[in-house]
Amino acid sequence: MGGVSRRKSGVTIPILAGIIVTALCSVFVLQWQLRRRRRDNKLGGKGKPLCGSPEWNAKQEVQQGEGILVAVDENFNLELEDLLRASAYVIGKSRSGIVYKVVVARGPALAVRRMSDLDDVDYCGDELCLRRAFEAEATAIGRARHPNVVQLRAYYYASDEKLLIYDYIPSGNLHSALHGGQTSMPWAARLAILVGAARGLAYLHECSTRKWPHGKLKSSKILLGEDLRPFVSGFGIDRVQRNGGGMQKQGRLTMERAAAGYLAPEMRHVEAEPATQRGDVYAFGVLMMETATGRVADAGLEEWVRSAFREARPLSEVVDPALLKEVHAKRQVLAVFHIALGCTEWNPESRPRMRTVADSLERVGPAS
């Protein structure tokens, strides 16, 4: 009996040791998961995780004559006739089409982008293939769900009409707020807009279906909702147009964007350079400079700011004069400029990722 007892005790020690090691490993794994979850939660906005929320509600398709109306949100229950009967006002025009504010009899106002077919290229050879390509890209846009990204509610496809139907964001855009308003925007509001826009763009880069680079980021693409909450808009449009029956000439777009000052150096002299996340980071850096200086983002803004810091000029010569009275914001303004300078490094590999930019802006100071 004693021999048997000793054998049991000799077996028990390794088993207990194994249990302890397993328990310790579980604790370490749990701690690592909690740390990672806390890190991911920072960028979601108002306590929501960057990539953790559901992105997709079931599609609802309704045949409308020769076309098809697809609701990508379960709460969207309008029919095409409702949209056609609604009052519509042009609120924007671009090479990709016309954007209307549509006021329907029931429900909130909508923004409807009527796509234009430019430089048509028949990639597929038949209408069914073109429709499927358009729907695939529009569906991918519809999957993007984030508090700082404009929400696609539905889309309509017909051979002669293509519509993208979004939430209507009521308070204009950052460009108008900075350059067209009668009153100056205070620094706290500007910082909050930058933080929210960075969150939204980081989400598109890391969590959206396509891991989208925006490609056309500028201050007019940051829409402002109630309480100046920012929404990134305009992402995915080029892919929809290119794969859904139309194609924009990249060379012309490159020249237009270079003149605006947002285009990264590596993309300025290439006819059809595809959009990149690093290019978005550069554009966001210029957007931060625009927000802090109050100057329009022309082709010389980035170099003007960089030379000012290289020459150690006083902050009063660089910052928007309307902010000079906000002495308490000096540290935050300087921090934003330094983040912007990192984003606009000429070497793309030297630029941070958007997640890092958003983290850095979060640390600058309190912003809602």
UniProtKB/TrEMBL annotation:
Keyword Transmembrane in record: yes
InterPro entries (alphabetical): Kinase-like_dom_sf, PRK1-6/SRF4-like, Prot_kinase_dom, Ser-Thr/Tyr_kinase_cat_dom
Gene Ontology molecular function: any one: ATP binding
Keyword Transmembrane: yes
Keywords, alphabetical: Membrane, Transmembrane, Transmembrane helix
Domain Protein kinase: 85-364
TM ranges: 12-32
PANTHER family referenced in this protein's UniProt entry, alphabetically: LEUCINE-RICH REPEAT RECEPTOR-LIKE PROTEIN KINASE PXC1, RECEPTOR PROTEIN KINASE-LIKE PROTEIN ZAR1
Protein name: Protein kinase domain-containing protein
Organism (species): Vanilla planifolia
